[in-house]
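Anyone else keep sequences and structure tokens together like this?

Example one:
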Amino acid sequence: MRKHIKKLLIGAGCLVISGNFYLILKDQSKIERAAFVDQYSAAKKEDIKEMLHKEGVVSPSDNYHYYYDEKMGSFKQFFVKKGEEVTIGTPLYEYISADIEADRVRMEAEITKIENQISAIEDHISELTRYRDTLMFEEEEKAEGRAIIHSVEQDIYDKELQAEMLGKTAEKYEQELEALQASEGKLTVVSEYEGIVSDVNIGLENPLITINSLTPTIRGSFNEEERIQAEAGMTAVLSSNLIKNPWKGTLQEADNLPAGRVSEKKKSSYPFTIQLDEEAPQELLQGSHVNIRLITKEVNGAIMVPKESVVRSKKKSFVWVITASGRLEQREMKAGMQSGNQVQAKKGIDAGEMIVSQSDSVQKEEGPSIITPLHPSKLELSAMKAIGKKQTARYLAKGILSR
């Protein structure tokens, strides 16, 4: 009789246990199943940048050409050769004037014309400066405002440079006029710029002499997709395998017109120029190649979560959040920029909230209860002794059966 009762009890126990396992494991079960969360981390604030990686070539910022016309008179001699460095006022070539009086009148007229042009440019610079000083922007407009201010300052810089170049041209004419009056028709053309002579045409074909500016600039080209992302005024971080430290520049110009002929068989390329914000390293040779990291977007204090934590569903994104009470919550968030293995949470997540690192570690129908792994190295012996054997056994059983 006792054996019969014992068998019935064992069978009933097995039936109850099997029934519980069935109810727990079957799909759409109403019995709560705890999620086993192995990895989780806090959402952190970080400064992030979105960069466009390109290559460029060091080139002179300007090329200056000098011409010769036989109507000016008879060519006499060159004073410079290719590769020679020149400064303002360096003699370039000499010719004998065909008509001294006509040259004198022409030079005086050119000097007067240039002085009028300089005066007009200075008035324009004053107007641009007043306009820049009146610009004010709200907090949300600061990014666009910086681009506008940079554009105005670039216009001021260009106008100042133009006025400076015209002043040097006027000085050149004045020097030639003095030389004309003192040399009985022998005229010497002098350099208006500092630079390196890159070409001397001994066949007297124009341009007769070409001078490259000593100021380097970085040139390259964007493809169609990259050109849409790039805007003048963006910061560029430049580096070279031959130079130890990186240096900074600014995207000065990005052409809207493609280089060369347009063809449906190949993608168009759009030239760009980067102006250096600091003095170029001495090792930076013209013609050398550099790496460019163009900062197209920048966010300070962005809230970042692991990329693998994000669940994407149609047009929405979610993450699993472990609340302060230790419960699991599926939270909608607005995803933003990506930086490495991290994604920006533009909305929905606060810094410091605990995020499940691997979204697929939470299975369907699991939660909101969670179980985390035991880390023996983090346990304190005194705390374990204080719990007691019965309580310890109860926690162990719960941990085993909950899964």
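And example two:
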Amino acid sequence: MLKLFIAEDEDTIRNGIISSIDWNMHDITICGEAANGEEALTLLDHVHPDIILTDIQMPKINGLDFIQQAKGRGLSFEAIILTGYEDFQYAKQSIRLNVFDYILKPALPSKILDAVLQAKQRIDQARLMNQQLHLLEEYADKNNYLEKVEKLHYWFHFPDQSKNEEKRISAKQLKMCIHPEDYLHVGIIRFPSKAISYYIDDYELLRFAAMNVTNETLSSFYSGKLEILFDHEFLIWVGNIDSHYDSSHLIPYLQQLKENYMRYLKLPIYIGIGRVKPSIEYVHDSYHEAKKALDEHYYYKEKDAFFYSELESQERKLSSHDKKLSDIENELITYIYQKQYDAALDKLEIWLTYLKENTSYHKDQMNVKAMTLIIEMQKFVQGTTLTKIEWENDFINWLEQMPTMKTFDEMSTILKKIFQNLFEIVTAEKPVHRTVQRAQAIIEGRYTENLTLESVANEVFVSSAYLSTLFKQELGINFLDYLHQYRITQAKILLTQHYKIYEVANKTGYKDERHFSSTFKKWTGMTPSNFQKESKISS
């Protein structure tokens, strides 16, 4: 726990700060309190606080002099000033003393807590950096560390070339921490492709921090018989286990590992675990199984730990020649060429659902299938429109993104975006029947109202059945889907303007937020909240 010291001459305020906040819940303990600067200085030598929260105007020694004298004694801490005086000279002196924060009284407990927690984060960061630098020096001192990493890489990636090597002897010669004759398995950690650590900017230092967190968390489970290394974007561990190993015993440690990565590095992680092998001679098998297990994150993004042993019991169908899937794809392409775009979108949803629930394609195979559909769509559009395709660069970017998709949902989102954009381009190319144009004008002018096929048909003086036929014939989409499409286009604009989701729903003609969210996801491939987050990141 971090130690907080409070120096404040007003008893009511000092006691209020101590009692109104649950400091223990935030891993902070009150190590001392004082009513004046002189008393505070006397106590500091005994309590050694990490954070000092002090008033400025106090008897005997004021808060700023107290901080200056404490630092003069060689004490290291973060200082937070709490004062009722908004004086420029005080602020200037605080800056010179490298005070962390300057809070004006009266201050809510929440504001004081926020300042202390931010100071705590800075201390945690500094300590972590020091730990990693120490670890970096340790690894640099171990002359054979790089040799061990090189050897393990060789065993992982070149099993045929290394099969005649006496791995047990090599492991002993390199003084690996694992016992080569004992049972072992491999675990792999993958970080999100856009992961950012808020604590550590230096990539090499981040790698060592990750290794340190992994070692500290898992070492007790493996009784210290553990080797940890990086292999490109993966962090890998090889650990010895006893013959009575049960994966359920490892799960609490993996949960703790995920929590520690978030706590110390602010990084989410995904984990794959290979099967147990009788000795290091089979380490490459466990490595490849761990990678395959990790690929399951493609289908189940809500999970973050996968055991290869679980894959064997899954009852997914092998689908190298899946006739039903092929039929769905053919129907989808037929709808596209028949310009039945609403039916094509519905069939795309069916195709995606079937792939996720009934097949066992590897993620690379899945992305190839998606790219095949995109290219078919491109051929259709290029044969349909005579004008230059303005989205060519975007299309190339989409294709380049497809192989990098880490989850099925990411692939689905990109695919739906592509279809949606291409359908909009095609429907915008041709001259439209004047009755449909008038109906479109009504939708564009009054999409926030409760429009129906019948009400719009009455306004353009045709029957609802005829207007429905015209929409399908002219735009390849039914009236209701066109209305949704237009509303969702407007909703996307509003979602980038910091409106709440329920406000956007009301402003675009949806009285029910759940209906709005499900419709938005159908047409964009993502929820309104996810769209809002992405737009904030890109802006």
